[in-house]
Amino acid sequence: MRPVAPRPPLPALLALLWALLPEAQVHLALEDQRLEPRIDRSKDSLLATARVEATPGEEGSHPLTCAVSLGNQRRSTQEYVTIYSFPAPNLTLSESEVPEGTEVSVECKAHAGAAVTLSWGPDGSPLPRAQTTLNATAEDDGREFLCSAMLVVAGEELHKHKTQKLSVLHGPRLDQETCPGNWTWEEDTPQTLRCQALGNPTPTLACRREGDRALLPIGDLRPVTRAISGTYVCRATSSRGAVTHEVVVNVIYRQSNLATILAVAGLIVGLAGTVGLAAYLYNRQRKIRKYKLQKAQEQAAMKLNSPP
């Protein structure tokens, strides 16, 4: 019986393997194309990476072979690599900036084989078609369109999106909702005078009082005084024109206690003066009547005592 050579201990085998790793040969190939891998060695493994530049027309599944040779031993494995082309979808607006009332066409396109959806609006619900038209209104200003594409690659769904906004030129506009026509406040209460002009481009706004053309302090938080009472004409102006809107400011104020006391005192004095004057006139008339009555009685007595 032949003697069996003793097996080297495990650390010695690892050391031998590590010494032989630099001699290992790694081969990478994509179908028939041999690649030039970069080899990174660690303690007990090798990592081979290679860069592949695919060209149009090579889409599909291709075998990738990795083979390692060490001495007279060779090991290999194979996986499939899927090459695909999936650029971002193309979202087209006939015009991205239009005056109000213009018809705009919107189209969403994607790479062949990808499913596309076009959505817009607050809820983002997709439209039944990837192409639509709309008559641009002020409500469409700033509307965002979303073009979505989905491609299935090796059983996985890939998604890409593109967005675009529509700018609608409109206005200027002043209405009751954004610029109330009647404000009534109590004096000395903190209030913010709000009046907003709508439009694209953004209008300039100035509110001037009829008569002295004093400016109304729009947008400032301040205590209200009776000095701002009056009727104002607000004018919104942009490159598209101008509109006006009338605003009436009423300030309710209460007189002070001193003013009230003075007013009451003045009323009392006035009433007293009126009563005094009336008493004086009545007494004077009474004396005049009494004097006339005495004179009449004296004349009557003289006539009776005179001889016939």
Report on this structure.
The chain is elongated, with a radius of gyration of 51 Å. A hairpin with a 2-residue loop joins β12 and β13 (156-173). The longest helix has 49 residues, at 257-305. The strands form six sheets. Strands 8, 10, 12, 13 and 16 form a five-stranded mixed sheet that branches. Strands 2-1-5-6 form a four-stranded antiparallel sheet, with no helix packed on it. Strands 14-20-19-17 form a four-stranded mixed sheet, with no helix packed on it. With 308 residues, it is of the alpha+beta class. It has helices at 10-20, 257-305, and strands spanning 25-30, 33-35, 38-41, 46-49, 60-70, 73-83, 90-93, 97-99, 103-109, 115-120, 131-135, 143-153, 156-173, 182-186, 190-192, 198-200, 204-209, 221-223, 230-238, 241-252. Among the domains are: 90-171, Immunoglobulin-like (Sandwich), CATH 2.60.40; 174-252, Immunoglobulin-like (Sandwich).
Structure summary:
This protein has 308 residues and is of the alpha+beta class.
Fold blueprint:
Layout: H1 10-20, E1 25-30, E2 33-35, E3 38-41, E4 46-49, E5 60-70, E6 73-83, E7 90-93, E8 97-99, E9 103-109, E10 115-120, E11 131-135, E12 143-153, E13 156-173, E14 182-186, E15 190-192, E16 198-200, E17 204-209, E18 221-223, E19 230-238, E20 241-252, H2 257-305
Parallel strand pairs: 8-13, 14-20
Antiparallel strand pairs: 1-2, 1-5, 3-4, 5-6, 7-9, 9-11, 10-12, 12-13, 13-16, 15-18, 17-19, 19-20
